[in-house]
């Protein structure tokens, strides 16, 4: 009775209802991956702020929340997995196969199973100060109403499994421009490809009605010889539709493809455009899977060789550091990157030493909180245990939903549920983490890459060095034959050959020597000035074939150890003269721009000061590098000032100042100038990060307090670390490394297919395939053909 009375009194401070603007967090705890499913005491959803917390042996986050916020009432949710019914007998299975088998129609998205079919669900009101619970039905009508609204509200997770595989397809300019074709004089033969005998995977051109087979779909048994693509290359007819995908029930499920845009598209009035070719969409019955369904099949059923070399099943692994990450829908690229980073001692030590910031109002929107939560989830081992949902063979894995939503919030690709390039995500994540934590976290990846450029006419040249955290090396592709399906068979190569190609001398045309002004061709060569503790090497497996990105499955011998000491930055030898930086500045006033490059840039519409400044800052080499520099410095305050080579430091000096244009951009979005300036100061002139901050802090007064200024000065840290590494560089450094991890990719493109991570822990290889974690033993042959990103540790 005392508990009921307390609830009645405390309910006066509760909101009256859950509004559409409210986020209700009920997937897992804000600070751990404890959930209603995996925590014995369930999940407590605060009835005041709608955030979720857990009470567990290791930590009582519910009590902490009450202590800090004085929010006393919570909706407690517990889910107990039901026993699965016994499988049907073999006779029953045969009857189903022979008789009235239910036709399983593949869906474009994951279909949500009713939780009541999987779990016994119990709910109650938990009172934190009394550490007591009561049934919801015993509370007042107002408390019951709010509790039921919390229970029925959609979860705040923006990567909900139900939406994970949904795909948005839009018309393109070419599909919109399609006219209803005239009926051809000779009826179109729809039964097979016009250029081969294939009778499936057929595409019809919406311009002329030509029938061609599609491309072979990686990961499926669907054949294809790309004759529909050949038709486009021959005729320029851009848009085609897959015959087997046509369905009278759902016109939007039909596969329409624009070869010029190289993407799926919608075709308005598709029915009318097909009729002249004798295809009646109103009576069509779907007979083949469409592209999204094929991609779904590939991602949901991919085993990535979970069998050993002798066919035995690889042993599932459990324990600290062996926790899987659930696939949220095309999130394997993120899972693989995160698994590798948190396998490193530097990441474990860094985040293991941090604690949650009590002043953060919403941990789901705070990057440090999300990284600490990931560290605990992956390293602690609490969630690495067999799951009845996975047949007790594998673990359920933890869901990095809030991390994925936060890290990709201001990126147009990473905020979607589309498959992404793991290497692009890794570099994007490094950039985010550097801005948040400074270089303390990722300093072990940083090294100086040196470059030497010399004039072959006067033997003068210069050296530069840049602070980088990875290299991307080419692969030699020697085709030695074709398999029975016509696929290329490549000769196995060594990674050391890729290093040799990357660090080889590279000719530079139209180089304007700073000493003699001669434009004869010369060479540029790069090398290591310093060697990082952790070396990241990605391999360039993607090439263009018929202007289509294609992945080459060139086998690379597994480099358990490498020595890159021989690839040190080149120095000036006898008979060569280095132009020192101070000498460069002395002759800067006689800077003569590359005439050809200057003409090209001016022809593109750039002003002369911009062109001169860009060419000067890129070594006066070519228009392409200068143009890239221009796009990166469009907001520099002095970009249109008259160019004076003796004052080229002005742009750098202004980098820490707030750009008026950036303030104007934010003001145009409806924010006050005072608030816009504060956002830019706190986010170091990063407009995207400033917009995110503004939306997360709508009630801020815009006043910059001394303690609110950013702690991280990334520009200064970069300069300091570069100077430190430069002083440590000497001829005695060695670059000997052992292989720590490899991110592998199966598929025809980095933006399709599937990513996994092979990680060596205490001398043993493990495969991290989303939530599945298995011991590899000697079964690491997948690395040869599918290795994409190598992670090495220094001896």
Discrete helix count: 25
| Helix amount | 25-40%
Residue-averaged pLDDT: 84
Low-confidence segments, ≥5 residues, pLDDT <50? 92-112, 158-167, 649-656
CATH class of the domain at 165-299: Alpha Beta
Structural class: alpha+beta
Shape: globular
Strand content: 15-25%
- Judging by the overall fold, what is the CATH architecture of the domain at 165-299? 2-Layer Sandwich
**Biggest sheet, open or closed, and with what strands and sense?**
8 strands, mixed
Radius of gyration over alpha carbons? Answer: 30 Å
CATH 4th-level superfamily of the domain at 165-299: Zinc/RING finger domain, C3HC4 (zinc finger)
Question: What is the β-strand count?
Answer: 27
Would you tell me which CATH topology of the domain at 165-299 applies? Answer: Herpes Virus-1
Distance between the termini: 67 Å
Question: Keywords, please?
Answer:
27 strands; 25 helices; 795 residues; alpha+beta; Herpes Virus-1; eight-stranded mixed sheet
Care to describe what's here?
With 795 residues, the protein is α+β, with helices and mostly antiparallel strands. Among the domains are: 118 residues, Herpes Virus-1 (2-Layer Sandwich); 135 residues, 2-Layer Sandwich (Herpes Virus-1); 39 residues, Orthogonal Bundle (Helicase, Ruva Protein, domain 3), CATH 1.10.8; 56 residues, Helicase, Ruva Protein, domain 3. Helix content is 28%, strand content 17%. The strands form six sheets. Strands 13, 18, 21, 23, 24, 25, 26 and 27 form an eight-stranded mixed beta sheet that branches. A five-stranded antiparallel beta sheet has the order 2-1-3-4-5, with helices on both faces. Strands 7-6-8-9-10 form a five-stranded antiparallel beta sheet, with helices on one face. Strand 11 and strand 12 form a beta hairpin. Helix 17 packs across helix 18 and helix 17 crosses helix 19. The protein is globular and about 95 Å long.
